Amino acid sequence: MLEGIGKKREDIYITNIVKYRPPDNRDPEPKEKEDCNEWLINELKIISPKLIVFLGRHSMTRFFPEEKISDLHGKLLIKPTLELGKQAFLPLYHPAAALYNGGMRETLIKDFNKIPKALEKIKTKNT
Predict the structure, then answer these.
(1) pLDDT tens profile 53-87
(2) Helix, strand counts (H, E) of the chain
(3) How many domains does the chain have?
(4) Which of 66, 97, 96, 95 has the alpha carbon at shortest distance from 79?
(5) What distance in Å separates the CA atoms of residue 58 and residue 103, rounded to the nearest whole number?
(6) Are 3 and 10 in contact (CB under 8 A)?
Protein backbone atom coordinates (compact mmCIF):
# COMPACT_ATOMS: atom_id res chain seq x y z
CA MET A 1 0.00 0.00 0.00
CA LEU A 2 2.92 2.35 0.67
CA GLU A 3 4.24 1.73 -2.82
CA GLY A 4 0.80 2.56 -4.21
CA ILE A 5 1.02 6.09 -2.77
CA GLY A 6 4.64 6.67 -3.77
CA LYS A 7 6.13 6.10 -0.31
CA LYS A 8 8.83 3.77 0.94
CA ARG A 9 9.03 2.13 4.34
CA GLU A 10 11.93 4.44 5.26
CA ASP A 11 9.69 7.47 4.55
CA ILE A 12 7.49 6.71 7.53
CA TYR A 13 7.73 5.97 11.22
CA ILE A 14 5.62 3.22 12.73
CA THR A 15 4.91 2.97 16.43
CA ASN A 16 2.34 1.29 18.61
CA ILE A 17 0.13 2.64 21.35
CA VAL A 18 1.22 -0.28 23.57
CA LYS A 19 4.92 -1.08 23.36
CA TYR A 20 4.57 -4.84 23.66
CA ARG A 21 2.23 -7.48 22.31
CA PRO A 22 -0.48 -8.37 24.83
CA PRO A 23 -0.73 -12.09 25.63
CA ASP A 24 -2.54 -14.19 23.01
CA ASN A 25 -2.60 -11.11 20.75
CA ARG A 26 -5.66 -9.83 22.63
CA ASP A 27 -6.78 -6.21 22.51
CA PRO A 28 -4.76 -3.95 24.81
CA GLU A 29 -6.40 -3.15 28.11
CA PRO A 30 -6.89 0.46 29.28
CA LYS A 31 -4.18 0.06 31.94
CA GLU A 32 -1.68 -1.15 29.32
CA LYS A 33 -2.46 1.85 27.13
CA GLU A 34 -2.12 4.17 30.12
CA ASP A 35 1.19 2.60 31.17
CA CYS A 36 2.66 3.24 27.69
CA ASN A 37 1.15 6.69 27.10
CA GLU A 38 4.11 8.79 28.27
CA TRP A 39 6.44 6.77 26.04
CA LEU A 40 4.10 7.27 23.06
CA ILE A 41 3.79 11.03 23.60
CA ASN A 42 7.56 11.40 23.98
CA GLU A 43 8.09 9.52 20.71
CA LEU A 44 5.61 11.76 18.91
CA LYS A 45 7.21 14.91 20.31
CA ILE A 46 10.63 13.80 19.07
CA ILE A 47 9.36 12.82 15.62
CA SER A 48 7.01 15.78 15.27
CA PRO A 49 4.95 14.12 12.51
CA LYS A 50 3.06 16.15 9.95
CA LEU A 51 0.33 13.51 9.95
CA ILE A 52 -0.50 10.73 12.37
CA VAL A 53 -2.23 7.86 10.61
CA PHE A 54 -4.15 5.65 13.00
CA LEU A 55 -4.25 2.02 11.95
CA GLY A 56 -7.29 0.85 13.84
CA ARG A 57 -9.53 1.89 16.67
CA HIS A 58 -7.10 1.38 19.54
CA SER A 59 -4.73 4.09 18.36
CA MET A 60 -7.58 6.36 17.27
CA THR A 61 -9.33 6.26 20.63
CA ARG A 62 -6.16 7.56 22.31
CA PHE A 63 -6.90 10.97 20.76
CA PHE A 64 -10.60 10.56 19.93
CA PRO A 65 -11.97 8.44 22.79
CA GLU A 66 -15.66 9.03 22.09
CA GLU A 67 -15.52 8.36 18.36
CA LYS A 68 -15.98 5.22 16.27
CA ILE A 69 -13.52 4.21 13.56
CA SER A 70 -16.46 3.38 11.29
CA ASP A 71 -17.49 7.06 11.42
CA LEU A 72 -14.04 8.65 11.02
CA HIS A 73 -12.02 6.34 8.75
CA GLY A 74 -10.54 8.15 5.79
CA LYS A 75 -11.31 11.64 7.15
CA LEU A 76 -8.57 14.17 7.82
CA LEU A 77 -8.94 15.52 11.34
CA ILE A 78 -7.02 18.48 12.71
CA LYS A 79 -7.22 18.89 16.45
CA PRO A 80 -5.29 20.77 19.10
CA THR A 81 -3.92 18.40 21.74
CA LEU A 82 -2.48 19.20 25.14
CA GLU A 83 0.67 17.19 24.51
CA LEU A 84 1.38 17.87 20.82
CA GLY A 85 -0.35 21.15 20.01
CA LYS A 86 -2.25 21.34 16.73
CA GLN A 87 -1.97 17.96 15.03
CA ALA A 88 -3.34 16.32 11.88
CA PHE A 89 -4.75 12.80 12.09
CA LEU A 90 -6.09 10.32 9.56
CA PRO A 91 -7.91 7.30 10.99
CA LEU A 92 -7.85 4.11 8.92
CA TYR A 93 -9.03 0.61 9.59
CA HIS A 94 -6.26 -1.71 10.76
CA PRO A 95 -4.81 -3.70 7.84
CA ALA A 96 -5.53 -6.93 9.74
CA ALA A 97 -9.24 -6.12 9.35
CA ALA A 98 -8.86 -6.85 5.64
CA LEU A 99 -7.55 -10.32 6.50
CA TYR A 100 -10.67 -11.12 8.52
CA ASN A 101 -13.12 -9.31 6.27
CA GLY A 102 -12.29 -9.33 2.56
CA GLY A 103 -14.73 -6.48 1.90
CA MET A 104 -12.57 -4.19 4.05
CA ARG A 105 -9.61 -4.46 1.69
CA GLU A 106 -11.13 -2.12 -0.88
CA THR A 107 -12.08 0.42 1.80
CA LEU A 108 -8.62 0.25 3.35
CA ILE A 109 -6.89 0.83 0.00
CA LYS A 110 -9.26 3.69 -0.86
CA ASP A 111 -8.63 5.34 2.52
CA PHE A 112 -4.89 4.69 2.33
CA ASN A 113 -4.82 6.54 -0.99
CA LYS A 114 -6.04 9.64 0.88
CA ILE A 115 -2.71 9.97 2.69
CA PRO A 116 -0.94 12.00 -0.07
CA LYS A 117 -3.95 14.31 -0.36
CA ALA A 118 -3.99 14.80 3.41
CA LEU A 119 -0.26 15.61 3.42
CA GLU A 120 -0.77 18.13 0.59
CA LYS A 121 -3.67 19.75 2.43
CA ILE A 122 -1.58 20.04 5.60
CA LYS A 123 1.33 21.51 3.62
CA THR A 124 -0.97 24.07 1.97
CA LYS A 125 -2.43 25.13 5.33
CA ASN A 126 1.04 25.57 6.83
CA THR A 127 2.47 27.74 4.02
Answers:
(1) 999 999 999 999 999 999 999 999 999 999 999 99
(2) 6, 3
(3) 1
(4) 66
(5) 21
(6) no
